[in-house]
Amino acid sequence: xxxxxxxxxxxxxxxxxxxxxxxxxxxxxxxxxxxxxxxxxxxxxxxxxxxxxxxxxxxxxxxxxxxxxxxxxxxxxxxxxxxxxxxxxxxxxxxxxxxxxxxxxxxxxxxxxxxxxxxxxxxxxxxxxxxxxxxxxxxxxxxxxxxxxxxxxxxxxxxxxxxxxxxxxxxxxxxxxxxxxxxxxxxxxxxxxxxxxxxxxxxxxxxxxxxxxxxxxxxxxxxxxxxxxxxxxxxxxxxxxxxxxxxxxxxxxxxxxxxxxxxxxxxxxxxxxxxxxxxxxxxxxxxxxxxxxxxxxxxxxxxxxxxxxxxxxxxxxxxxxxxxxxxxxxxxxxxxxxxxxxxxxxxxxxxxxxxxxxxxxxxxxxxxxxxxxxxxxxxxxxxxxxxxxxxxxxxxxxxxxxxxxxxxxxxx
Length: 412
Prior knowledge:
GO molecular function: hydrolase activity, hydrolyzing O-glycosyl compounds
Number of strands: 18
Pfam family, one: Glyco_hydro_1
Keywords: Hydrolase
Protein name: Glycosyl hydrolase family 1
InterPro entries: GH (IPR017853), Glyco_hydro_1 (IPR001360), Glycosyl_Hydrolase_39 (IPR051923)
Strand content: 15-25%
């Protein structure tokens, strides 16, 4: 699945007074027809996209489907397959933020309403980057609730993952053959000294929490104590262990040059740049969850040479081929996003209106060099890779689990 995405982040900043709606700031609302035509032109058969939650979910049982009705009808006409992103970093004002315990149930009801309105849609990412949502909102203090505490982080995490699980269940009741692609940030923390080994190990256990809870994988004893010490109850933990939906999931993992970190002895972190790279870190996640994989996000800003993004594209594609040739069932690749973004150089925390050259097209919808390179990559490879990786391995794996085989058995 060769994909791109419409950047639809919409968190709030400045104490909830300001919303950073990237679909508006990048011109998508005014130019959505042109954007979809560009997706078709570049050769992407799949598009990560979702209706803006804050504009669509107006209140309990109240929806404005105007955007979704128009855009999804056009995608269907163009035969672009949507991977529907229902919650991308922000909530409607009436729900507040991710500390709100009412969010999971309200979101599940919304997910069901979407599935009923668009029953032909099969692929979903209910909540985008659950780990990053919780970290940026409740540990770093950047977005939404703007908290900086372990308790705030655990509260956001348990609500976000519960919302994702309940949404998957609600969608499956409408469309039993739905598939869920968890677009989650794949992280690694390197110790910068022997004294930092302990803090780095804690961070490397913590990076799995969102997917552990989502897939019903038991966390380590240290992480269990951490969760309970910071507000998760035993009943809440048992909920995640009892709702095992792995059989309907593809592990989407995102990798950027910022995904690896150096940890110091006092637990502080800073960017390390690419050390292990996508292939090594993806193997760690695949070894833990044993699911089909999709590379669901990457990009790099064009620099003074003009070819930095193109080189990064080819490096990521080489990593995808490497893990595939090593036997990992990897089923897709994504350059995110279709167009340039605005103010992601400050993670949307500052309203500078600065265009970040990260897209396949700029904000005037002129193709960038990386867009030309991706178009060629798709044309060269789309008919070369055997269809078996998507059409055989994924369903066989899922059917075996659905038949009730114990985890890890009968896979020969």
